[in-house]
Amino acid sequence: MLELNNVLFAFGLTVFAGLSTGIGSALAFFATRTNTKLLSLSLGFSAGVMIYVSFVEILAKSQDAMASYLGEVQGAWAAVLAFFGGITLIALIDKFIPDYENPHEIHDTSEMKDKNAAMKYKKLRSVGLFTALAIAIHNFPEGLATFIGALSDPALGIAVAIAIAIHNIPEGIAVSIPIYYGTGSRKKAFMFSFLSGVAEPVGAIIGYLVLRSFINDLTFGILFGMVAGIMVFISLDELLPAAQKYGEHHLAIYGLIAGMGVMAMSLLLLM
Predict the structure, then answer these.
(1) Which of 92, 105, 108, 102 has the alpha carbon at shortest distance from 24?
(2) The pTM is what?
């Protein structure tokens, strides 16, 4: 059985990462324009951290856990299957969430001043509850990724939490802007943005309650592999395209390399 302190620490990191959507929501309301260059670098950095840690640390942990339960060869195959299973899961979630309800659709704080945007997002008034549900489903795997990473290794959990927190800031902007124009209410826009973040610790709690009775090397191996796949997909499908759209191609790549470098150094220093 996992120690309570480890579980609480992992949950605290998940809350921190999830509620970072509130930062994005605040930026949407109080900033006159988005600092796109900084946002592009930050998103690239987040992608670099997540890609590097997924391949170098989390997938390796999956293979080790599987090998101790299934043997080296079968364990390696099982870890790879879990990795692509995680990619399949998050890809299916993305596929079945319509674009205008997907919290990862890219928006800019300048849209708060754009009168034409109001007409574009009017339809959200009638689908507010479904939007909240769609956001929650989309963010469940991210909460599980942070939680499992922290349970495995506190230092790894901190790195994953920071990367996902950076990723959640533009998500908060993306949620707030259309809902603000759909309802005319800043309070409702912030509430929906807040709910999109709450979905991550809720996902972690549900995942832990469902799996805690079955936690062993095999379970951890499957979860680590799936988490690695989820994080790689998020990075390639959402973070890097967003970084390039907000800024310049080279800024996104510089951020990506910086994220990998920082993650590599942190793992080496903690050995």
Answers:
(1) 108
(2) 0.71
- The per-residue pLDDT for range 126-181, each reduced to its tens digit, is 444 455 555 566 677 778 778 877 877 787 788 788 888 877 777 777 667 666 76
Q: What angle do CA 96, 10, 206 make, to 5 degrees?
A: 45
What tokens were used for 70? 């299934």
Q: What angle do CA 160, 164, 165 make, to 5 degrees?
A: 115
User: Domain tally for the chain?
Assistant: 1
Q: What is the pLDDT of residues 197-219, one digit of tens each?
A: 888 888 888 877 877 777 777 88
Question: For residue 84, what pLDDT band results from cuts at 50, 70 and 90?
Answer: very high
Distance CA 136, CA 215 (A): 25
Give the domain extent around 38: 4-269
The C-alpha angle with vertex 23 and arms to 264 and 226, in degrees rounded to 5, equals: 45
3-state secondary structure the chain: CCCHHHHHHHHHHHHHHHCCHHHHHHHHHHCCCCCHHHHHHHHHHHHHHHHHHHHHHHHHHHHHHHHHHHCHHHHHHHHHHHHHHHHHHHHHHHHCCCHHHCCCCCCCHHHHHCHHHHHHCHHHHHHHHHHHHHHHHHHHHHHHHHHHHHHHCHHHHHHHHHHHHHHHHHHHHHHHHHHHHHHCCHHHHHHHHHHHHHHHHHHHHHHHHHHHHHCCHHHHHHHHHHHHHHHHHHHHHHHHHHHHHHCCHHHHHHHHHHHHHHHHHHHHHCC
